[in-house]
Specification:
The complex is a heterodimer of chains A (117) and B (168). Chain A is built from one helix and ten strands. Chain A has 117 residues and is mainly β. Chain A has one domain: Transthyretin/hydroxyisourate hydrolase domain (Immunoglobulin-like), CATH 2.60.40.180. A four-stranded mixed beta sheet of chain A has the order 3-2-9-10, with no helix packed on it. Chain A has a four-stranded antiparallel beta sheet with strand order 5-4-6-7. In chain A, strand 9 and strand 10 form a beta hairpin. The termini of chain A are close together. Chain B is mainly beta. Chain B has two domains: 1-33, no CATH class; 55-167, Sandwich (Immunoglobulin-like). The longest helix of chain B is centred in the N-terminal third of the chain and has 10 residues, at 8-17. Chain B starts with 7 loop residues before the first helix and ends with a strand. Classes of the chains: A mainly beta (117), B mainly beta (168). Chain A binds chain B through residues 58-60, 68, 80-88, 90-92, 94-95, 109-115, and chain B through 111, 130-139, 141-143, 145, 151, 158, 160-166.
């Protein structure tokens, strides 16, 4: 299946990160156009595909993860304010027939992303 | 050192064992390594624990197992709702910068972005990437809260992935 999906994991606890805001944008000309804002579910995923297969086109995309807000949510117990706040991941769909799974593994001080599956 | 079946992983220890001998002896290089492959790490890790507060960075190419040398970088600071360029440069041979990104008067609390030209970096090394490449210009955003503390931005990257973290 083509399109774009994501998965947010809290690498400080080894658990899915639920309730993380993600803004998904597409590059149009030289400016980023917001396509939609999502929240991760209890599994750290989005209920709907980030980009459904039928809408996948070659181009540049951005997932903006609100990592800082997640780690400063009510009840969290950070020793100091996070090093990361909003974390953009910019990537290309170079073949619209392929699927692009773009996970975000994060703590308040580190993050990792990659083309997953 | 005429064994040209050495893998890249074996090459580094073999090179270290040679000590001061010439590293460019052709046959020691893995047969499948591109001609323009970057050099391995040539210096020991650096401790910065005794240095004054500053922002430093270090980019490691974990695709080749080498410093991310000659990476084009744009460094910006958030100012009035947009990232304003502070400087553009290329990383040095060690994947670091010759001078700290910020030190002394220039080292201030704020929101910063390091933009890595990852596709350009790998294309220069002869890697074949899709067009457009999965990663091209990679923005790394972070916040300096307390300019009394040293911040080291550590970066690991490949054509398909990257990590960055508050290092030391």
């Amino acid at each position: 299946m083509a399109g774009v999906s994501t998965h947010v994991l809290d690498s400080s606890t080894g658990r899915p990160a639920a309730g993380v805001r993600i803004d998904f944008s597409v590059l149009e000309g030289s400016s980023w156009k917001l396509v939609k804002t999502m929240l991760t579910n209890g599994d750290g995923r989005t209920d709907q595909p980030v980009l459904p297969p039928a809408e996948a086109k070659v181009g540049e995309y951005e997932l903006l993860f609100y990592v800082g807000d997640f780690f400063q949510r009510p009840g969290s117990n950070l020793a100091e304010p996070p090093f990361l706040d909003t974390v953009p991941v910019r990537f290309s769909i170079f073949d619209a027939k392929q699927h692009y799974h773009v996970p975000m593994l994060c703590s308040a001080w580190s993050c990792t992303t990659y083309r997953g599956s | 050192m005429s064994n040209n079946t050495l893998t890249r992983r074996q090459f580094l220890p073999a090179g270290l064992a040679l000590g001061g001998m010439v590293m460019s002896a052709g046959p020691a290089v893995a047969a499948d390594a591109p001609a323009s492959a970057p050099a391995g790490l040539s210096t020991a890790p650096t401790s910065m624990s005794a240095l004054s507060p500053r922002l430093t960075m270090h980019a490691i190419d974990i695709f080749h197992g080498s410093p991310g040398a000659a990476m084009p970088v744009e460094f910006s600071m958030m100012d009035g709702g947009a990232y304003k360029p502070l400087k553009s440069f290329e990383t040095n041979k060690g994947g670091r910068t010759d001078e700290p990104l910020l030190v002394g008067e220039s080292y201030r609390a704020g929101r910063y972005e390091v933009l890595l030209h990852v596709a350009e970096y790998f294309e220069r090394l002869g890697e074949k990437l899709p067009n457009p490449s999965f990663l091209s210009k990679v923005p790394l955003r972070f916040v300096i809260r307390n300019p009394a503390e040293r911040i080291h931005l550590a970066i690991l990257f490949t054509p398909w992935s990257y990590s960055y973290y508050r290092g030391s």
